[in-house]
Amino acid sequence: MAIRVRFAPSPTGFVHLGSLRTALYNYLFARHNQGKIVLRIEDTDQSRYVEGAVENLINILNWAGIDFDEGPHIGGNYGPYHQSERFDLYKKHSDSLLGENYAYPCFCSAERLDQLREQQKQNEQPVMYDGHCRNITSEEAAERMQTENYVVRLKTPREGFTIVDDLIRGSVKFENTLIDDQVLLKSDGFPTYHLANVVDDHLMQINHVIRGEEWIPSTPKHVILYKAFGWQLPEFAHLPLLLNPDRSKLSKRQNDVAVEDYQQKGVLPEALINFVALLGWNKGDDQELFSKDEMIKAFTLERVNKSGAVFDLNKLFWMNGHYIRNMNESEYVAAAIRLLSKIGRDKGDKKTNRTIVLAVRNHIQVFDDLKQATDLFFNERLDYSEDAIKWIQLDSSKMIFKNMLDHIEEYSELDINDFKKMMKTVQHATGIKGKELWMPVRAAMTGLTEGPELPAVISVFGKHRVKQLLKQALEL
Ligand code: GLU
Fold first, then answer.
1. Of 119, 207, 290, 399, which alpha carbon lies 20 to 30 A from 85's?
2. CATH topology (fold) of 386-474
3. Which of 48, 81, 211 to mutate to test the pocket of ligand 1 (most atoms within 8 A of CB)?
4. Is 197 touching ligand 1 by the criterion CB < 6 Å?
5. Where are the domains of the chain?
6. Whole-prediction pTM value?
């Protein structure tokens, strides 16, 4: 059987990280099994329409490197792939359920339903439809449908259980009396998520439904629908919840949850995908860094966890740092210079800009860090850390600084080689070497005891600034 999966988002204007994970797992599963992946836009709720949301979604998926075999922007055999263009189909299927008595029209007013809900809440009963219209005869129903407003409800069985077999969770049993007579078609003739989703999954020949755990309560309704239509059930796989480090549900309050936020911070798509892949899946060993091809090769649903996946931002940034260091050098330089020039940080000379971004490459985790990491090269004022001051104030350090000032005029410029030569001379003259030699110089030049490679820093500073900083350090 050729695998067919789908990613079926309801565009809301931004892409949630959980959504990206669902898309990615579907994609990896499809590619691992030489199957097909469909993008289907679930936009039946017109009141939630957001201008530009679909374009934004497609841009994000492209950026992340998740490509589809069929979808609104590609076409395919089972389209159209916007549910809003398929309303006739859902109506037709709702009619057929009505005809077979698997569904019924419900004429209850909004007021009655509100009252019912209030009552059930007060009595601490589950909030669900009470079946008031379930047993209206088909003659009466047909007549009232001519003149009254109605919704179409699923006639769920009133005894026994519905079993959902889940590839990740195993068998989950639902008591039928607790499954609501779900609205399938609203009074304006628009379908609900449940009807449209099941009809489309069947018509698009989706045989594996991979989605977030929050959809589990809907799945028994879907199983009942499949049975009512007489269709073969797909396999279900519900992915674990994403959690904050304190194990609460991943929230906007504690973390950025929109993919766009990370994109703007300068997280690389390769790093984000790698990170997201590990939110609920592992290869079975402790490998953490995966290229897309490695993920495709290794991905199976058997290795997806049941328990919630903790979202650890530090790990994402650590990973991104790794990807930044692995980038092709000229790509890195171009991207970093582009970002810096956006905030007006440009030395007006290609070679110098290049030296700067390469010097800080090992010290950033996301591109956004470039701003802080390059302060050194653009701020006149130097703030010394406490540690730096300690180093600078040693007697031996003062000796080094004086010695450097004595020799500095021997060099017309102070490029990397000149600087190294000068330090050799100072080492001979003072007899100080290693950490005792380099740390004070770093402290005096950068105000810090760690940071980018010193010779590169000095070469950007030039002789004039180095002299000025040495004098400043001597006065400290
Ligand atoms: N439209 C639903 C969503 O926004 C799809 C859920 C499913 O995959 O069935 O996530």
1. 207
2. Arc Repressor Mutant, subunit A (1.10.10)
3. 211
4. yes
5. 4-73+242-310, 86-239, 327-369, 386-474
6. 0.92
